[in-house]
Design brief:
The structure is a homodimer. The first copy, chain A, is an alpha+beta fold. Chain A has helices at residues 16-29, 58-67, and strands at 2-8, 36-43, 48-55, 74-77, 80-81.
Chain lengths: 82, 82
């Protein structure tokens, strides 16, 4: 398992409820791909959303995000953490 | 105080030691701007580095990063967190 940071652009105006709903949609199906979404951060002003996950691959992260209805624009394996 | 995610591009090949050294350089002076860098994640393959901080402003975050020798390419106030 590895850690991934994925990024969604263009989410300007996202609300707390929308972020929670999107996160919960991921959590509901993440086990199908052995992914766990740990946390998500959103900036409604710029529309950037960051999701931190533990997963077997970037492809597994994307499959969950796609099925939940919000494909990631970037997925990076963050192998270094301090 | 608010939370910020900042992004550094172009750090391909960054090592664990370099990430730790950069993070420690921030920690050494962060109090001057009432900033606290909580965590940093790096993907040596794509060269993306993400830093999560608590700070009074994006400008305060940037001032610490600049003095530490690594200006951020993007700084986003992440007002929503799940």
């Amino acid at each position: 398992m590895a850690q991934f940071m994925d990024v969604h652009h263009g989410m300007k105006g996202i609300t707390a409820d929308q972020l929670l709903e999107a996160h919960n949609a991921d959590l509901a199906i993440e086990e199908d791909e052995h992914v766990h979404f740990e946390r998500a951060w959103a900036d409604p002003a710029s529309g950037e959303v960051y999701c931190l996950s533990e997963a077997p691959s970037a492809e597994a992260v994307q499959r969950i995000h796609e099925r939940a209805g919000h494909r990631a624009d970037e997925i990076h394996e963050v192998s270094l953490i301090v």
